[in-house]
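Reminder to self: tokens first, then the designed residues, so the page reads top to bottom the way the pipeline ran.
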């Protein structure tokens, strides 16, 4: 995917030091220090224009969020979405680009994600409408390929989970098989997330809104990674269901 943006994009995001992280490797193992607290850290890998991560950071102030993408233009667009979501004035109206306490936008290539986060540094990874890479020869590029999932396992902690959403049936099928082949427990699997309408508490991405309003099925599942998360899940399964 190539993006053609306006002139001066890199300069624009470089000015936003409180929000945008350009040197992610320097913070490997130090993200809690950067946020200034020990709250859980959730990362969206391939955040696109940033609507989801911005709205999540507003909705859950006690969670630290990191939106990751490799394109300057998407980082810039996400910064604009973040300021709108948090009702921050534009740079022209303020002396400097302000930050958001629980949100960082990270310019980085997900292929090397283990170089940006230390072992057990994240609690949750979001994969929202990732490129399906439909050709078989490109399977290794899919973000749910075992090669990537192994990296997520490394950087997720004892409560770690992966939350996947996609409109691509082929990618969803591939992903479920990938997780199963790795012996991972899945839950809340949905082949049509919005079959009964939009849930008011559900934070949607730009693609999700577009596709769902067109009547397309949105597929979703959660993958339980961490030992504590798995123990909690199994404990819930063992409890009798309410009548």
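Designed residues (243 positions):
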């Amino acid at each position: 995917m190539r993006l053609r943006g306006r002139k001066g994009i890199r300069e624009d995001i470089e000015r936003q030091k409180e929000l945008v992280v350009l040197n992610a490797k320097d913070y490997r193992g130090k993200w809690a220090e950067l946020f200034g607290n020990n709250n859980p850290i959730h990362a969206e890998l391939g955040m696109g224009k940033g609507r989801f991560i911005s709205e999540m950071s507003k909705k859950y102030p006690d969670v630290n969020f990191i939106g990751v993408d490799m394109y300057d233009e998407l980082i810039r667009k996400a910064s604009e979405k973040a300021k709108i979501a948090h009702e921050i004035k534009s740079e022209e109206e303020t002396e400097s680009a302000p930050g958001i306490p629980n949100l960082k936008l990270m310019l980085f290539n997900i292929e090397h994600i283990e170089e940006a986060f230390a072992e057990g540094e994240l609690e949750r990874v979001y994969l929202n409408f990732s490129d399906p890479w439909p050709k078989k020869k490109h399977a290794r590029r899919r973000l749910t390929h075992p090669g990537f999932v192994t990296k997520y396992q490394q950087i997720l902690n004892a409560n770690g989970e992966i939350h996947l959403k996609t409109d691509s049936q082929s990618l969803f099928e591939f992903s479920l098989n990938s997780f199963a082949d790795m012996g991972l427990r899945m839950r809340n699997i949905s082949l049509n997330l919005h079959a009964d309408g939009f849930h008011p508490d559900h934070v949607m991405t730009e693609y999700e809104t577009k596709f769902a309003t067109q009547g397309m099925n949105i597929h979703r599942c959660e993958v339980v990674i961490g030992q504590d998360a798995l123990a909690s899940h199994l404990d819930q399964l063992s409890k009798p269901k309410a009548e």
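The chain has one domain: 9-238.
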